[in-house]
């Protein structure tokens, strides 16, 4: 196990009710949270949870990824998300983070215990760690943008929709790209070192639109 990568991060997991969370912190104190729930994440719910976490911790909104597991569609329980995230942040311990098999593996330095894993589609698990792959070192960088797709003339009563686009980078090795709903990867995005997490931060997928594609390129450039 690399002493450099082991010293670079702290991590912890926690679960509460229908939610689970992984918290990561780099050596400079920057944090990222990957939270997953058994209920759909709407924009209003994501905003509510993010505000509560922002009040408690020094973490930027861009570093808070809230995702529906895709399994189950139960009534929303925002308190479960807040509780799981809070517990994970409060209990972080030295950890080694690896990129392997197109996913993320997080293991405790002490005892090499598996903490969590992120699959290539962003699914958060509390097992499935690997000892191979690339050990990650370096800062956490995150970017978040609400983007409005191209639209024609609006009629009275029409609602202007905006969609969240988020990217969280770990070192120079891996970036997690999060889009809402049942989104698909925009064309022209290299899959190298990329974990693509749909169903994040909003229940409705963005349309295939040049503004959305441009926002994806922008947040990836800021996070990588």
Describe this protein's structure:
It is a single chain. It is globular, with a radius of gyration of 17 Å. α2 packs parallel to α3. The model is unreliable at 1-6 (pLDDT under 50). The two termini are 24 Å apart. It has 224 residues and is of the alpha+beta class. The chain folds into two domains: 3-135, no CATH class; 140-223, no CATH class. It is built from four helices and 13 strands. 21% of the residues lie in helices and 34% in strands. The protein has helices at residues 3-8, 43-56, 78-90, 210-223, and strands at residues 9-16, 19-26, 31-37, 64-68, 93-100, 103-108, 114-118, 124-125, 134-135, 140-147, 163-170, 174-179, 194-197. Strands 1, 2, 3, 4, 5, 6, 7, 8 and 9 form a nine-stranded mixed β-sheet that branches. Strands 10-11-12-13 form a four-stranded mixed β-sheet, with helices on one face. A hairpin with a 3-residue loop joins β11 and β12 (174-179).
